[in-house]
Specification:
The complex is a heterotetramer, with two copies of chain A (617 residues) and two copies of chain B (281 residues). Chain A is an alpha/beta fold and 617 residues long. Chain A is built from 20 helices and 22 strands. Chain A is globular and about 90 Å long. Chain B is built from eight helices and nine strands. The chains are: A alpha/beta (617), B alpha/beta (281). Bound molecules: thiamine diphosphate (2 copies), iron/sulfur cluster (2 copies) and magnesium ion (2 copies). The site of one iron/sulfur cluster has 11 residues of chain D, from loops.
């Protein structure tokens, strides 16, 4: 908005963290998304952290119903949405009381004054009105009559009070946009697309947005404006993407690069459903989605599709994955390519459906009957879900095996800028299907190549008719076989096949010196916090390096050597130490854990403190 | 199902795999296997375009004995496996082979949803009213009072009737036949294959080891005729050894009547395959 | 049979191992069971190993249809059915070719000569008739026309040929009984009970039995008879029991001693079904059995019963356990007592349904979503299933938690003598249910005792109405709660609750010196082979001790100390090293594995060789 | 259900738990909850002898709001949980609360078997034709063409009809009601509680967030009367705003007719609760 004449002093910041919070009905997710997209377009690096309540819409004004969306935008590269927020926009008392802890001392606190009536204050559990008692003195408090001002702004459009109040989030956006000198254009465009068919509503939202913006411009109360310059990201076409979107597009891309049609069989479950929602809109890429009657049908239908030659994928979260475990065993025995996505959430059991956790790693490793090895890889950030989805299918087809792809609620719903790749430049995934033999010699479905992968013969091919199933297979012929020696051979063969994948993997990289006092090993969504923490400590001269694992089974071939070059090993996880058990068991190293099980990602601070503590003694 | 332009003439032998059949001597499954091998060549679909999908059970060993593509999947899930295969490869001819336990006990939900989705697959349920493979526990179709390994004092749960369940899910093709009635069975299998949509066929199958003679009344020389009625489109519902019995509607409830004795063929119910409402299908 | 006048020299043996093998239809399991019971009554110690084919009845004469039953009876204490057999009874060529490998050189080989016709010989894959070529010279071969002689024996009873031939196994029994000087009485009694209603059949079996016996008596061919004196077992009322029977009776006993009604919800699956078959016959003990529509209904119905105050149990094998994993998470979250029995079989997937394996340990440990700790204990022998079943329920109620009880196909179908205990002398299991509070203060379903166990309040109790479920619980109140700190607290609390069980367990015992060169750690059904092997090596002066674990989660408190007192640790398992991973991960000891995955138990010899190899270098 | 000797008079309040109700404002679940609280005190069964078992879904939060014993179990399994509880504690009054996805998608098999076993439990299915808790995917009862999060181009699977499914499993009590028709709903809930055997009740429930107005035709002021018919035992099947419509049997297929115009009440179908064959139940 180079055109605006700045009426107030402008403070330049390297990064800013803002959180919108209010009722599930207040449209906070929309507000956050708009600020996110606008900032992405403004060229900032960004990281977001939406935080939903478990209920669809708990009663108005209750703590249970508070929904939040945090976004950090910066002129430098960032890996997390920030430990604390610089500005908090709270639409009601319940939102204030549940979110204030994360506001930095002296931070900007914008509240909807109108919501602080007796009822609202009581619902939040306040004895007195926090806006009147001095409890908020430590912050730059801006109590604004958003309800009244919004109603005023939309007056004369013939909207009912309820509809008018629905525009409040646009008022809050407008104000925030002014505060951080953001353009209103992208949001105005969004309003046109979204509400085009309802001109009154569209106009109301536009007016509310502008009203909020102008309020900032005009009010004495707010002394200054902030700007965050664009980051110099690698040039390219950027778009802001969530982990679930990235996973969906990665799957579609993998299908294109491998020449298979994507078959996605799944049953809705939080926080994995958005992958399905994204894919159903991509039918034009030949995607076949199947919303099954349950998770068992989802995975078994995918196995049927895999037998037919499709790129078979199923996705769920912990409880649904538990139901798939028997069928995954069938995929292991039939040695068909299959991608199983687990967007992890808080457990055990139904647990905390809308919160994040990393506690399904051992389930992915061992949650099946018998010796049933499955490769496991994990995404480290929203955009990384795209690459990992492609990698999962590459491994599945190259080695003829089901593959576990672990994501989590934090990166699945979080967003970051992502360079839209030129699909055709991405490496091809070569998939071979045998043709019928001329010489009429019998087809051997369990013969193997140098990677111990078996041939993927498709129905419809003359001369290759064969039957597969869950009973133990005879080596080479694939016939049912109960002989003791064959069984032992096949169990070891299946294990070796997965172990051999390590030869195919890039060597594990280490951020920082190749040896030293402390090695931090992380996996999955904790990448951002760990990378940032390690970097900061090293900037202060600490002898610490970082190895972030994408490949959890098998481990990269050089992991053992890396570990041995450090005095101590720290493994931060959002669980009680699942990777730690695997590392200890495999390398007999006394790895130390930093474990958080609060349904929330690590704060960078938490990891730094642990590192410093370990470096001290 | 579209038949190919020029096809080599196929024989039952073309559909037989090299695997040794491993059912008990005397098992009803042998006859069903034989009829299937007889019917398939008449459909004009080559073995490589045919896939048999099964769950777990004696009956579910079926695919191993067919020289087609096949999946011997896991217990109860065959309809779901077949659904995924059919969705991604609509041109294939997909058959589901299942048992009364596989289809109606652990697999009931998948059966229900396969039928409602009405994809063009054929589901053949081998009903021996017992768990064969696990050596004789009762199944959802075991009759009240039936003594089995798991019900030494007789079954007390009401049995499910496969066709009623299928109709409750608004199946577009249901039929029942008998392992030993090979003429009727092969006709039914052919009709099932030809129906576009999910065809559901229940086949009474004798398990001579754990539930021998369960269908004696329907197969026995002297009881057969009086206790079964072969439906034919547009024909009145007449049956009986001397074709002297019929079914007519008394008000809204069907009843069995003797022909003659003031009852003529026209009073009887006529079988109408095309009726939309399955009320009396 | 003190009365028999011995017509032939008698050789006294310390132990003898006999195997009957033939078609599934030949009644070999019956023959073995009869010899087993008779030997038990004769006062021998015994161990058996039935080995079924996967098919109910494969076509006659095929290898796929061969069924075997091995029994070892001894005058000393024994722990295994023996690595090799002293006498093999083979009813047809297929049985001979598949079983001969296990017959000791020079061993007794009794075959049904009549079955060695061209067809039979061909089906077995023999080029020539093994009875005629000299291939069997290394054994004491007795080719006997069992078919003809049996038909002769039952002539005149009006039996058809098929029925006559069904008596062949009795002929074989009779001959074997003579060979080992066993009484016919128990079997004759069995015939009366079993075939009482069919006098002709009963008589035919009696005649066949006697005919076989007399053949041994009279024929020149067999030169001598063998006797195995009674073992001096601890006095008491003995009966011969299989693992599945013992488990069933143990469950019933636990119900009685805890004053709960036993609710057993399960879905049939090999090799666990026999527990159900045994329990349905015990309705008179107030046992409620429920054959569910699937494993999920089996376990969830058990959870419903547990909520109602029943002793809730569910049993299955690997594939079925996989389906129960989601529900087990619910039991962990609701903290209800529940026993989950897994009679392990060969995996992965459908695998080898009738064969044994130990590959579901990690599934029991980790096969659930989220941090979901469940205590795990394992039975070591058929009779031990009785004690372990009681122990499982004791832990479940004392600590309010689901408990995994691991058995396997080998001990489930195998049999050994068992002293029938006086139920009333067995320790009581005290179960407390709270009563409604007078003072009307609210009931707190998630308050805890010193073991961190919560109260087990039952529907029907006034004033204690409460709701439980799979969402995270608030500490103490048990209300649904999504707060970060509470979640972390509860996850750790559930883990600590299970860890605390260790304080309740007897210290781990060690057979042999408390320190030395080598410690063998075993668990489950490998006990017999490991105990025998360690004993033998130590008898020869080897420095090796043995720790057999009944408790796998948590480990006994003193296990770490024990391990540290040995230079090396060997962990033999019928898997690829599942306990080994847990031991390595927990104690950082470089435990070595001896792993066999052939669907068969260890031969003592195999364990001895590994021990010796490790003691050498 | 046996009523106790001397009972303190119970009120709806006695059945309300202290937990804050967390459905969306305007959700149809509120009304069903209210009717349940009204009906329970009339059954003569104290709160402590009553257990509500549910699966997962918005509707399945129900037990938390009742001051009875309750289990909020896992998705689809409530009928199985209730079965185990009822088998071991037959004297308890056991209710299953479930949704269209919970009962007919993932839980279809347990529902089917609970109905066939016919234990004395009451199953109430809240049918909003959508997955509410997971924010709006289609369910097995979603209608053809319905646009949802997972069907942007409209549903293409044939829906299941809960009552047909139940009848296919030979249910001994089936009924349907509406969240907003509180008189009829409470009557139906009471009748369900009183029926000995498994009672299956489908309640049309409005999800005003993800499938608002799905039952407008049956609830709307001016369409309601013409599109619903309240069955009463022994009464003719008459409906319509001006009670001028009826249902009669034309041959074997039911048809809607206008009264008068040569059709009299006696020509209509009469509702017979006692009829054994569910053909026209
Ligand atoms: C998950 C699982 N549960 C249980 C079993 C054991 N099992 C195999 S087949 C079967 C039932 C067989 O009965 P049916 O489906 O009627 O087939 P039949 O053998 O009678 O032809 C059972 C319970 C299994 N293999 N997998
Ligand atoms: C095993 C499992 N799969 C999926 C889910 C996600 N899930 C929760 S409720 C639900 C469906 C809800 O629909 P419905 O049963 O109709 O209840 P409603 O919310 O509409 O009342 C789904 C798919 C889950 N919690 N557990
Ligand atoms: S057990 Fe019964 S069903 Fe199975 S093969 Fe034998 S006879 Fe057939
Ligand atoms: S989402 Fe729909 S069903 Fe769920 S509470 Fe809200 S309105 Fe009710
Ligand atoms: Mg069967
Ligand atoms: Mg619903």
């Amino acid at each position: 908005m180079a055109t605006t004449i700045r009426s107030k002093p402008v403070v330049e910041l390297e990064a800013a963290t803002v959180r919108f919070c209010g009722d599930s009905g207040d449209g906070m997710q929309l507000a956050g998304t708009q600020l996110t997209n606008t900032s992405a377009l403004a060229g900032n690096d960004i990281a977001t952290f939406p935080d939903f309540p478990a209920e669809i819409r708990a009663p108005r004004g209750t703590k249970a119903g508070v929904s939040g969306f945090q976004i950090r935008f910066a002129s430098t590269e960032i890996f997390t949405p920030g430990d604390q927020v610089d500005a908090l926009v709270a639409m009601n008392p319940a939102a204030l009381v549940t979110n204030l802890v994360d506001l930095v001392p002296g931070g900007i606190l914008i509240v909807n004054k109108d919501a602080f009536d007796e009822k609202g204050i009581a619902q939040a559990g306040y004895k007195t009105n926090p806006l009147d008692d001095s409890s908020l003195d430590g912050y730059q408090l801006f109590p604004i009559e958003m309800t009244r001002l919004t109603r005023l702004a939309v007056q004369g459009l013939g909207l009912g009070q309820k509809e008018s109040d629905r525009c409040r989030n646009f008022y809050a956006m407008g104000l925030t946009f002014w505060l951080y000198d953001r353009s209103l254009e992208p949001t105005l465009r969004y309003v046109d697309e979204k509400f085009g068919k309802m001109p009154a509503v569209a106009e109301a939202n536009r007016r509310a947005l502008r009203a909020g913006y102008n309020y900032g411009e005009t009010t004495e109360a707010i002394a200054s404006q902030y700007v965050v310059q664009k980051a110099d990201l690698v040039p390219g076409l950027y778009r802001n993407i969530t982990g679930n979107q990235a996973a969906a597009w990665g799957l579609v891309t993998a299908a294109q690069r491998s020449g298979c049609t994507l078959y996605f069989g799944s049953y809705p479950i939080t926080p994995a459903s958005d992958i399905l929602h994204e894919l159903v809109r991509l039918k034009n890429f030949g995607v076949r989605t199947f919303q099954a009657e349950d998770e068992i049908a989802a995975v078994t239908s995918a196995i049927g599709a895999a037998f037919g030659g499709a790129m078979a994928v199923t996705a769920s979260s912990g409880p649904g994955i538990a139901l798939k475990t028997e069928a995954i065993g069938l995929a292991v025995m039939t040695e068909l390519p299959l991608v199983i996505v687990n967007v992890q959430r808080g457990g055990p059991s139904t647990g905390l459906p809308t919160k994040t956790e990393q506690a399904d790693l051992l389930q992915a490793m061992f949650g099946r009957n018998g010796e049933c090895p499955v490769p496991v890889i994990a995404a480290r950030s929203p955009a990384d879900c795209f690459d990992v989805a492609i990698e999962a299918w590459r491994i599945a087809t190259r080695h003829m095996t089901p593959v576990f792809l672990l994501s989590d609620g934090y990166i699945a719903n979080g967003a970051e800028p992502w360079t839209v790749p030129d699909i055709d430049t991405l490496p091809q995934i070569t998939v071979k299907h045998p043709q019928g033999k001329e010489n009429g010699e019998p087809f051997l479905p369990y013969a193997r190549d140098e990677r111990l992968a078996r041939p993927w013969a498709l129905p419809g091919t003359p001369g290759l008719m064969h039957r597969i199933g869950g009973l133990e297979k005879q080596d080479i012929t694939g016939n049912v076989n109960y002989e003791p020696a064959n069984h032992e051979h096949m169990v070891n063969l299946r294990a070796r096949k997965v172990a051999l994948i390590a030869n195919d993997l890039p060597p594990q990289e280490v951020a920082g010196p190749a040896s030293g006092k402390l090695l931090v090993i992380s996996w999955g969504g904790t990448y951002g916090a760990c990378a940032t923490a390690v970097q900061k400590v090293r900037d202060q001269g600490g002898s610490v390096s970082h190895a972030h694992l994408r490949y959890l089974n098998p481990f990269p071939a050089n992991l053992g050597d890396i570990i041995r070059r450090f005095e101590k090993v720290l493994i931060p996880e959002l669980n009680r130490g699942q990777l730690r058990l695997l590392i200890r068991g495999e390398f007999l190293v006394d790895a130390i854990g930093l474990n958080k099980i609060q349904g929330k990602p690590f704060a960078v601070r938490e990891v730094i403190e642990k590192i410093q503590q370990l470096l001290k003694n | 199902m579209s038949t190919e332009a020029v096809l080599p003439v196929l024989t039952p032998g073309d559909f037989a795999s090299d695997q040794e059949v491993r059912w008990c001597p005397g098992c009803g499954d042998y006859s069903i296997l034989a009829q299937m091998k007889k019917v398939l060549p008449t459909l004009g679909i080559p073995p490589e375009k045919t896939v048999f999908v099964s769950g777990i059970g004696c009956s579910s060993r079926f695919p191993y004995y067919m020289n087609t593509y096949g999946i011997h999947s896991i217990h109860g899930r065959a309809p779901a496996v077949a659904t995924g295969l059919k969705i991604s490869r609509p041109e294939l001819s997909v058959w589901v082979i299942t048992g009364d336990g596989d289809a109606l006990s652990i697999g009931g939900n998948h059966l229900m949803h396969a039928i409602r989705r009405n994809l063009n697959i054929n589901i053949i349920l081998f009903n021996n009213r017992i768990y064969g493979l696990t050596k004789g526990q009762y199944s959802p179709t075991s009759v009240l009072g039936q003594v089995t390994k798991s019900t030494p004092n007789g079954v007390i749960d009401n049995p499910l009737h496969p066709l009623s369940v299928a109709i409750g899910c608004e199946a577009t093709f249901v039929a029942r036949s008998l392992d030993v009635n090979i003429k009727h069975l092969s006709m039914v299998l052919k009709r099932a294959a030809e129906h576009v949509g999910t065809s559901f066929v229940e086949v009474y199958q004798n398990c001579n080891v754990f539930n021998d003679g369960a269908f004696e009344y329907a197969t026995g020389r002297d009881t057969r005729a009086d206790s079964t009625l072969e439906l034919e489109h547009g024909k009145p519902m007449i049956f009986g050894k001397s074709r002297d019995k019929g079914i007519r509607l008394n008000g809204i409830t069907p009843e069995v009547v003797e022909l003659g004795k003031g009852v003529s063929e026209d009073d009887l119910l006529f079988h109408d395959e095309k009726v939309a409402e399955p009320t009396l299908a």
